[in-house]
Structures are given as C-alpha cells and as structure tokens.
Amino acid sequence: MSRMNDVLSPLAFSNGVLSLLDQRRLPTEEVWIDYRDYREVAAAIRDMVVRGAPAIGCTAAYGVAIGAMQQAPFDEVCEALAATRPTAINLFWAIERMKQVVPRTPLALARAAIALHEDDIASCRAIGKNGAALLPAGRVLTHCNAGALATGGYGTALGVIRAAVESGTALAVYADETRPFLQGARLTAWELQRSGIPTTLITDNMAGHFMAKGAIQSVVVGADRIAANGDTANKIGTFTVAVLAREHNIPFFVAAPLSTIDRAIPDGTHIPIEERSPREVTHIGPLQVAPDGIAVANPAFDVTPARLITAIITEAGVARPPYRDSLAALFS
Ligand code: MRU
Fold first, then answer.
1. Where in the chain do CATH 1.20.120.420 domains reside?
2. Neighbours of 331 (CB within 10 A)
3. Pairwise CA distance, residues 34 & 41, whole Å
4. Is residue 95 lining ligand 1, measured as CB closer than 6 Å?
5. Does residue 183 have its Cβ closer than 6 Å to ligand 1?
6. Could you say which of 6, 38, 88, 157 has the lowest number of CB atoms within 10 Å?
C-alpha cells in the first residue's frame, strides 16, 4: 500500500496520475494500476479495482480532477463517475463536493481531491478515537472490509479496532469471509494480518455458532449509506449478523464518516441496492460452483434496521438511539 499522512492507503495521486491498488488481486498479488483517463477511473470503481464507500468517494474525486486535465466536459465527467455504483452515498457526496470547487481548473480540482482524501483519513482516525473505548476486551466480529483498503486510509470499522488495540485493549478479530466477493477472506484477513492484529477467518454461516459459545463480545461493521433514522446499508449479510448479535445480547456497532449519512432519505427503504453479476455467486474466482442455467440473485448490500444498532460511531461523535435526533445533532 502507499503512504498518505502516515497511514497506508489503497490510492495514491502524483503528477496528475491516480494509482490504485488492484483489490481484485489481493491477497496473492499486490498490483498497482495507473489512471490518466476519467472513464477508466469510472470503470475501476464499477469493476471493483477499488471498493468500499469512502475509498470510491476519494477515487471519484480524483476522477473529476483527471477529467478536468483531459479537458472533458465537467458534467459528463461527473455523470460517468456517478453511474458506477448506486448504493454508497460517499460516491455522490464526493462528486457534489467537487462541484463546489471554484474555479474548476485542473489544479484547483486536484487540490480539492487531495484535501478530500486527507479529510477522509482524518475522519477515520477520529472515528477510531471515538469508538475505541466501546469495544470490550475479547473478540470482535467484523463483516466485509471496512479497513484502510475501503477508505482513504486507516479504516472505519477496522479503524475502531486499530484504535482499541493501540489504546491497549486486548482484542482479537473474527473476520467473516463475506460471500460472494470474499472481501473478508481476501482483504480484511490480509490487512489485519499485515497490521499484526490477531485474526481468525470464519465463513459467514459460523457467526451464530461462535456467538452462542460466548466467543464474540462485540460486532463492528462499516456502512455504505445510513438513512436519517439510522437504518444502515452495508455489505450483504450484515443484517443477518445484527439479528444474531441481538439474539445473543452482543453490542452491534456501525462505524462511518458523516459523508455516509444520507439525511435526505427518512429510512432504509429508500436506499438503492446494487445488484451485481450472477457470476459472483455461481463462481469462486475461476471455479464454477453451481450448475449452468441456475437462477441467481446477487444483491450486494442489505439494510440493517436502526433498532438492531447499539451505536453509530462517526468522526463527530457517537450517536445512540433514537437516531433521527442523535444523527441530526452530529451535523450541528
Ligand atoms: O462492495 P464493496 O466491497 O464496495 O462493499 C463495501 C462495504 O460494504 C463496506 O463495509 C462499506 O463500504 C464500508 S467501507 C469503510
């Protein structure tokens, strides 16, 4: 990974070129791809070279700057980047922030994208600081990857785990593998192993077993979009984990920057859920695991109702139920 403001980052920008760590090839290969064309940046978001709500926001911001360097029409650039993935609000938030830049020169837009990236890292650090004390010693379960790889750097859910470990909490992680795209097995396991945080990889259907045995003391996940009432869209399977956590009286935390909160929608029913290729379900990498012609559903995200969420940890503070009031207060 590259270094930005003292943390590891999956994206780097230098001399007008955006470099992305190709997350499709982790954990076995660490390959960086250079981008000089905004259309290719859009394709990188769509094809999951880069993924994770804050990371795709940062990438889109750099994409806007690159489009300006190419002298492409500003609105076309923004539209192409916005048309990549529908669920994570950070993508649209970042493009909106870039639209506010004056003047819309390549230099000003590049500076704004770098500032947005730096702000995201600062937010992740603050989320970590605000959430660290909430995690009890023992084992924490996480789902998908909400780490340095999914953000400008440091991570949201994994930022809280990092900060807890840095503050001396004796913590080990259970990482759900996160079918079908395996962000847990491929990315979270890789990232935490590199950070020296003790981690046990489990398949998604093992979480209930370990909770029932008393092996899990808390859950922390990231978010792709949080509605005004606290309903939270995150990687498919998050809802199941939240139900299991409630059954076992285990606190369930969401960690996300304010840029993930969509105050324009009252609840989670308004969150668009991305449907991805059936191939992600019928195949694991190149290996076919289902018969030809089988019908497949592949929603990439689900919505965890606010009532199952113990607290939402942001850079501005920790929101507790009722979220309509506590989230609104974080913005004031
Ligand atoms: O499809 P992905 O890999 O982009 O989904 C990522 C997640 O669901 C993350 O948990 C979420 O974006 C938070 S990342 C800090």
1. 2-125
2. 10
3. 9
4. no
5. yes
6. 6
Backbone angles phi, psi at 92, to 5 degrees: -70, -35
For 263-272, write each residue's pLDDT tens digit: 999 999 999 9
At 3 the pLDDT is 78
Mean pLDDT score across all residues of the chain: 97
What is the architecture of the domain spanning 131-330? 3-Layer(aba) Sandwich (3.40)
Residue 243 backbone class (left: φ over 0; alpha: ψ -120 to 50; beta: rest): alpha
Say whether pTM exceeds 0.85.
Answer: yes
The residue from 224, 231, 262, 302 that is catalytic is 224
DSSP bridge pairs for 303: 233
User: Given 1.20.120.420, 1.10.3720.10, 3.30.110.30, 3.90.25.10, which CATH number is that of 2-125?
Assistant: 1.20.120.420
| Residue 267 among the catalytic residues | no
Q: Give the CA distances from residue 315 to residues 252, 318, 327, 331, in Å, rounded to whole numbers and listed in that order.
A: 18, 8, 12, 11
